[in-house]
Amino acid sequence: MSRTTLDLWVGVFVAMGIAALLFLALKVGSISGSDIQAPYTLSARFDNIGGLKARAPVKVAGVLVGRVTEIRYDNERFQAEVVFSVDGRYKFPTDTFANILTSGLLGEQYVGLDPGGEDKLLAPGDVIKKTQSAVVLEKLISQFMFNKAAEGDTAPAK
Amino acid sequence: MVGAIRRLGALFINGVWQLGFITRFFWLILVYSGQSFTRIHLTLRELYFSGVMSLLIILVSGLFVGLVLGLQGYETLQRYGASDSLGTLVALSLVRELGPVVAGLLFASRAGSAVTAEIGLMKVTEQLKAMDMMAVSPIARVVAPRFWGGVISMPLLAALFSAMGVFGGWLIGVVAIGVDDGAFWSQMQSAVDFRYDVLNGVIKSCVFGVAVALIAVFEGYDCVPTAEGVSRAITRTVVSSALAILALDFVMTSFMFRG
């Protein structure tokens, strides 16, 4: 008789464990495969990708439409080639603009797409030609400093 | 001098000998598992003793670890004005590292030591030999059910630990301190990936389960059949499971979460 209560407890234990796993899967994490359906790949070449990493989000108008799958260095063009997979439900015109943006001041970097007005659409495997590199904070600061220094040189001459 | 070298050599040879024996023992357990699964209630009974009986300590420690993570994480994050990322911090550290590792350590000291003591005492009182005499394989009857009980309960306990920890972090962060509820969950969900983070954590806890259960049954089976030998075997179970968990965790983390 005591074996049945034992079975009950084991059942409760296993059910609790599976519930915890489900909680971790659905509430804590997000199942990445499901929100991107029938993905196709696009790529873009950038002069500088900053801190972009594989698995970074690809967003259009702030909506997540895909993820970066691979980043490699193109030794013939001396540029970084970023490959990303995009949800098959979304199509973009051929003159789409690809930027590397930062969410917040210190947030993660992501690829932002700005669709253009062309009628032809990008096919799977296409390369986006219009790109803008990541903003490197050091460059921005040094540019600002040089400008200030140049102003300082010219100001007393007036 | 010569004596020291001789002791070192003996220690090394003994280590290799034990490694060989534990591998052969693991193989024997796998071979006899089929036979012991035909009497499934043996495994269920061990699942009860090592899994259900560890529930309380796992849940309570998970809650406390989550509470501490929430407090400490908030303390650091609010200096950078990033207290909204509290959920990410709590969930990622629990799911990836703390859940499997701390649950494994607790499991080794709560259930692993009990298994070693039980098998060791069976050996002292020559019950294992008696089973052999009656043509009942002690590995199929005693060892394999305890091994599988540990292997099955470990991932479940680690998942419960992580879930409880996230709840504790939520309790401190959202209910007590007042971090925004929506930001807490949404930032957590966007940062924690099911396959990359949760599944890797589960794989880790499965590996820890095999390691802890194997060490526990082996030390019990291999102990010197005296009262002192059993107590030494229990100590060795806890020490070597802890070392095995931490070392395996380092190896797996460096493979799983690179870059």
Please state the overall shape of chain B, judged from the principal axes of the Cα atoms.
Answer: elongated
In total, the number of domains of chain B comes to: 1
Q: Roughly what fraction of the amino acids of chain B lie in strands?
A: under 5%
Low-confidence stretches of chain A are none
Strand content of chain A: 25-35%
The main sheet of chain A orders its strands as: 7-1-4-3-2-6-5-8
Bin the helical content of chain A: 25-40%
- Mean of pLDDT of chain A: 83
Number of domains of chain A: 2
Unreliable runs of chain B = none
Helix coverage percent of chain B: over 70%
Biggest interface goes to: A-B, 27 and 35 residues
Number of E-state strands of chain A? 8
> What's the gyration radius of chain A in Å?
24 Å
Largest sheet of chain B: none
Assembly form of the protein: heterodimer
Class per helix and strand makeup of chain A: alpha/beta
Keyword list:
heterodimer, A: 158 residues, eight-stranded mixed sheet, 8 strands, B: 259 residues, mainly alpha, 0% strand, elongated
Provide a descriptive summary of the structure in words.
The complex is a heterodimer of chains A (158) and B (259). Chain A is an alpha/beta fold. The model of chain A has no long low-confidence stretch (mean pLDDT 83). In chain A, 31% of the residues lie in helices and 30% in strands. The longest helix of chain A has 27 residues, at 2-28. Chain A is elongated and about 90 Å long. In chain A, strand 5 (97-102) and strand 6 form a beta hairpin. Chain A has two domains: 1-30; 37-143, no CATH class. By secondary structure, chain B is mostly helical. Chain B has one domain (2-256). Chain B is 88% helix and 0% strand. Chain B has helices spanning 2-37, 40-51, 55-77, 86-124, 127-133, 138-177, 181-191, 194-222, 227-256. In chain B, helix 1 packs across helix 6 and helix 6 packs across helix 8 (194-222). The mean pLDDT of chain B is 91. The interface between A and B is medium-sized, with 27 and 35 residues.
